[in-house]
Amino acid sequence: MIETSTPTMLDKTEPAHCTVCCCTLANKILMVLFMVLLIFAILFGNLVTLAVILGTKHFHTPQGYLKASLAVADLAVGIFVVPLSVYAEVYLMVTDSAPEWTSYNSQSVSFHPCNVIGPIFAGCTLVSITTIFLLTIERSIAVLKPLHKDSVITRKRTTILIVLSWVGSFFLAVSPMIFSSEIALEYNSCSRMCNYALGNIGEFPSPAWNILLLFPAFDFTLLGGTMVINIISLSSIRQHSKRRKHLAETESTVTKPTFSDIKAAKTIGTLTVAFTASFTPIAVFVVGNVLGNKWCNFSFFAFWILATNSCWNVIIYSVRDQKFRLRAHKLLMPFQRKDTTKT
């Protein structure tokens, strides 16, 4: 989401801009193939997730609503963010020159594609983080206070929180351009994505830096809180398991979380670990930029590791949630039958 240097696609004079992914034709082809496969993986996985959640009454719960919101955010990455990168890279390979708009930042032209795509990527990343935080809160209440779960966690409250998370996340995504004239958007030749950048090359005003650093500060505050809550929930689950083994008779009279609640809490914990792992390289990159390091090659890997996170969720659900796996299998069975009849 954040890039503090401003190399452009048409700037071929600096060898540093020849990243490890794009220095040879073979590398360029592999990079585009990776992007195309990523689009299909994101679209397929999240469409299956939405079909399972929306088409199954069992998943019409606050937790299901939050997972649907997460799937929509991931879908947006596959529909808008990655295809623009594919277009720019294919155009560069076919014509041996980059699209004209990649040589300018958003302050230099009246309309720039990154004015739309950049905030979408940033906003959807922030939505994903806030949604995982809300999922963790929802599961912690189910595990720690099972008697209060139905009264505290309602569909109406969950819907309101989802709307607020989308509005707040996208407001934060566009806030750098609103509150600082120094912030621009550009298609960066290192990350091969639309990134935020400082409009004046070589000058780093402190107000602009403060605004840019809102992203890692916000993200790691929520991710840190999510990790702490997950640790508390999983510790409670472990204590409950020990009590159930040693005090089976007396424990039957005590209200305890259901097996499905425990299983869901572990699934959300796995989601948290996966997202934290995918976001950490971006945080390291931002800190490195603050210290004056460009890290062009690392920039590419950091941003695309984060993008691949958009197709992990369905894999985690399929591995951890048997009901989700069975429902997804039923949805895909008609397509499998068509394939067998053709053969």
From TrEMBL:
Cited Pfam families: 7tm_1 (PF00001)
Transmembrane segments: none
Main localization, broad class: membrane
Gene Ontology MF: a single term: trace-amine receptor activity
Cell compartment(s), UniProt: Cell membrane
UniProt entry keywords in alphabetical sequence: Cell membrane, G-protein coupled receptor, Membrane, Receptor, Transducer, Transmembrane, Transmembrane helix
GO CC field: plasma membrane
UniProt topology in membrane: Multi-pass membrane protein
Keyword Protease: no
Homology family: Belongs to the G-protein coupled receptor 1 family.
Protein name: Trace amine-associated receptor 13c
Lineage: Eukaryota, Metazoa, Chordata, Craniata, Vertebrata
